[in-house]
Amino acid sequence: MSGSRPRAIIVGIGTECSSFAPHRTAMADFGVRVGDRVLDRFPAVQAGRFGEVDFVPGPVSRALPGGPVLRAVYDALLHDVLAAVRHGAPWDGVLLDIHGAMLVDGLDDAEADLAEQVRDAAGGADVVLAAAMDLHGQVSRDFAQLVDLPTCYRTAPHVDESDTRDRAAGLLARALTSGVSPARAWCRIPVALPGEKTSTRVEPAASLYRSLANPPDGVWEAALWVGYAWADEPRTSAAVVVVGEDLGAIQRECARLAEEFVAARDAFTFCGPTGSLSWALDEAAAATDGTFFVSDTGDNPTAGGSGDVATTLDTLLADRRVTDGAGDAIWTALVDPDGVRAAQRVGVGGDFDERVGGCFGWPARVGLRGVVRRLVSDGSGDVALIAVGRLQVLLTTRRTPFHTVADYARIGVDVTRTKLVINKIGYLEPELDAVSSGWAMALTEGPVDQRIDHLHFERLQHPLHPFDAIDDSWRAEVEVFGFAQ
Ligand SMILES: [Zn+2]
């Protein structure tokens, strides 16, 4: 009876891109998984929980967030995805393992393009498409029309990635084996929020996301996307999709979520103490013991920052409390390959005197005079630590997030013995949070400036909060797709 079991292929191209980052995401930035390394991302699939469906791994590529993907790179990755899909076609189902906020040079709504091409290659209209996404992904009307069963994380910071992927696989298995074709209700929510205002650990996101766990009868899955605010394209907004077999129930649940989200729009606030960089340094100076963290939020590489914005360094070098304070301070990290090479040329203990920053084109270069304290070269790229008094400035050859104690240990720094850590990051990742004695988020400039109304957008669809006033009488306009007429 082999051959009668439904077959589904898992494929994806995933990243998150800021329109304002001068960086471009290239092939070297992507890691491509195939075979078991794809299935590793789906523990329940691997454990055989959906054994009635054959899940077949195709190529799944991911890149660190950054600037838009070069068109030729997307085309090459797509070519490999389509070749794998065509090779085993026709398929009963496809599971897209994607982020959902990818920008590609010269192509709007990249995920809708991916979904359309994959659907065509897999067998056309009868193929069931599911998608496992980040809640910071975007769901345009076109995408909602193309993908039968989209869903996304329910936590930020994200702690339910593999649960979400397994849930998407379960939805696909249910659709392929139950004989039921569920419909979906979609609604654009006219709100754009920066990531650091949407932590699901605090209200109003906590309650909204908690409510997804117990959907009404007739609803298979309710999914809520915060969206990605730093993309200057028409689809940028929050969105909701509710999948199920009861048309009335999915429309009501979709409208409820959209309207509650809009009603709460002003209640989404920064998930920690937030202010200017100078305010954050005042907070740090007032802290007496332990390690104080300042998030340099505007150029956070894991949100799509380019990593080459040096503006914060200018302020740090001018602050004697940082350079000549009672304890060590470190700023991580500025990608500056020329700076690293200059440090390597003079060696440890040598004098460093270069202008740094802007290697991708961000218009800010800063003079940095200090002493080369340490040089590290390993598989993660070369780095140089430049000391200016008590402040150490980390230069890297690659865009590198510092999210764990081990990330710092790799460069020879014990964060727990460092008084002040200024980090290109948003909300603190759990491990850094656990070792911090205090924390402040600094609103700094960069491609992911949390003050999104400071950025110059040209292509958004209006109205969109916070750029436009949304009337309190706003009511959801829900569209239904996939209903068998
Ligand atoms: Zn995310």
TrEMBL record:
<dbReference type="InterPro" id="IPR015995">
    <property type="entry name" value="MlrC_N"/>
</dbReference>
<dbReference type="Pfam" id="PF07171">
    <property type="entry name" value="MlrC_C"/>
</dbReference>
<dbReference type="InterPro" id="IPR010799">
    <property type="entry name" value="MlrC_C"/>
</dbReference>
<feature type="domain" description="Microcystin LR degradation protein MlrC N-terminal">
    <location>
        <begin position="7"/>
        <end position="284"/>
    </location>
</feature>
<dbReference type="Pfam" id="PF07364">
    <property type="entry name" value="DUF1485"/>
</dbReference>
<protein>
    <submittedName>
        <fullName>M81 family metallopeptidase</fullName>
    </submittedName>
</protein>
<feature type="domain" description="Microcystin LR degradation protein MlrC C-terminal">
    <location>
        <begin position="294"/>
        <end position="459"/>
    </location>
</feature>
